[in-house]
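Reopening this ticket.

The earlier resolution said the output was attached, but the attachment link was broken on my side. Pasting everything inline this time so it's all in one place.
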Amino acid sequence: MKTLLNKIETELIIKNSRFINELFICESQSDARELIKSQKDKYQDASHVCHAFVIGKDAEVLGMSDAGEPSGTAGRPMLDVLKGSGITNILLTVTRYFGGTLLGTGGLVKAYGDCAKSVIEKAFADNATEELVEKKDFSFSCDYATYETIKRQLKDFTIYEMKEEYADCVTLKAKILADQVETFSTMIKNVTNGKVDL
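Inline output:
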């Protein structure tokens, strides 16, 4: 299984209808609900904001909505493409601005399927995916000198989404590969003589 590294967007014009296709990183159903709500708020003037999502380590949580399109013509073809992509923890919204020409049920199924394919193809073309690995959040705070010492050791670990905050002390927030947590924790204890809590 793969995961997405950043949001991907494509746009298609099909028989004068405009389709805006946006693929988001989404790790839970509550994330999905929030993203869908914000997309509907953002595109209040659109004819439809349809969605499909695939979530979970084994892509076991699935969801979709035709959002007013005829039943089975939008959510299902989008979800089928997502399921076949090998990517999990993703939400796709396809926002349609109706262009005056009816596509018919077959035309809609093809259009929404093509929208999903275009955004998945772009994700792979942009190298915006990576293998799914379990990561753990961590944070710690320490003085500047200690942080410099710890920072030299960080290259030995696989760290993601590092955020450094500089104030009276330095606070580091990031994610680390789950199977490196114990070794990392030991390194922090050793380097700081047990003064810094992970």
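Reporter confirms the inline version is readable. Helices lie at 29-42, 75-85, 104-125, 144-153, 181-191. The domain at 2-130 is CATH 3.30.230.30 (Ribosomal Protein S5; domain 2).
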